[in-house]
Amino acid sequence: MAWACSATSNERLVQKLLQASIITKERVVQAMKTVDRRDFCPRDPYEDSPQGIGYGVTISAPHMHGYALDKLEPFLEPGMRALDIGSGSGYLTACMASMVGSSGKAVGVEHIRELVDSAKRNLQKNHLDYHQLEFVAGDGRLGYEKEAPYDCIHVGAAAPVTPQSLISQLKSPGRLFIPVGKEDEEQWIMIYDKDEHGHITETKWLGVKYVPLTDVENQKKIYG
């Protein structure tokens, strides 16, 4: 079902994701309609599969972005703060910015400077008014302490183990959505919830296959 949502327009893509119950919340529907994938994906933007954007990096399939936004929606209310690690094209960060609104803050961290610059250009196509959004170059494994704590954190690459450094940057309450597992082993989307007392619960949710969360030197060495 998840991989059957390809479409020929952004409007139709969102409709298919909704019909497939991948997205279930109206605020997610509106955000994904507002932020057109065509502005962030150089080819086949409405194909429900990952698309390369250079340096061994992909923009995730639309259904994975839909899943992430739907799971994080309670922590993307207007005025909240969100962190997107491995922001790549900038698409998901823009969706998060749309949801937290002008009174909130969405930060995209990407370790490849060229992709940070590309994401900024992508945003300028139709979202010059998104002053609540910031793209920065940095090591996403460390989070982004400057704007912490965050109501939610999304990670678009797989960490080998539970990322304590990111959990520490969550608010209480707060939620982290991240693939966990080594590149050649099983990977799962893990959802870490921090309650109002700082206690952590984890949910092993969905089997996936993501590129590893690594450093920029290793990324460029492997992928050029």
Structure notes:
Belongs to the methyltransferase superfamily. L-isoaspartyl/D-aspartyl protein methyltransferase family. It is found in: Cytoplasm, Cytosol. Monomer. One of its GO terms (molecular function) is protein-L-isoaspartate (D-aspartate) O-methyltransferase activity. Keywords: Cytoplasm, Methyltransferase, S-adenosyl-L-methionine, Transferase. The chain has 224 residues and is α/β, with parallel strands linked by helices. The chain has a seven-stranded mixed β-sheet, covered by helices on one side. Strands 1-2 form a two-stranded antiparallel ribbon. The longest helix is centred in the middle third of the chain and has 12 residues, at 113-124. The protein has helices spanning 10-19, 26-34, 62-72, 91-100, 113-124, 164-167, 216-223; strands at 51-54, 57-59, 81-85, 105-110, 133-137, 150-155, 170-180, 187-194, 200-208. Helix content is 29%, strand content 25%. It has one domain: Vaccinia Virus protein VP39 (Rossmann fold), CATH 3.40.50.150. The chain is built from seven helices and nine strands, in the order H-H-E-E-H-E-H-E-H-E-E-H-E-E-E-H. Helix 2 (26-34) packs across helix 4.
